[in-house]
Design a protein that fits this description.
mainly alpha, TerB-like, about 140 residues
Amino acid sequence: MFPNSLNDLSLEERKAHAELMVIIASIDGELVQEELMLLESIMGSSMLHPEMRVDIRNMLNNPPNFEKTIGFLSETGLKLALRDGALLSAVDGEYNKKELRMLSSIAKNAGVDKVTMSKLFEWVESIWKSYNDSESILSI
């Protein structure tokens, strides 16, 4: 992940953001390597302490409560979670219905409309295409 405004959030919000990523990653009942790698990347870019990361990883088997977790997030925090959650949901190549419902719920709580959600999904698609193009450029 790139440096971003996630680091402008308080430690409590960054932790809640990571916990929300755990909820999204585990909601479909399947944790794939790509989701785990992206989750690690998100925690790293959020500058979460290594011990806090261990606690968050341990939540993968027993995810936290969604309503309680989003309660710690400001509108900006929710929007950043929506952005990163959309990336995380797409990393395995498809959006699961449960992931889409979760993203929709985050969007509703963040005050994000359907037009903006469509633009977000288009952005996610372009990010993954650009990333995959880099391997083609480098012949790997």
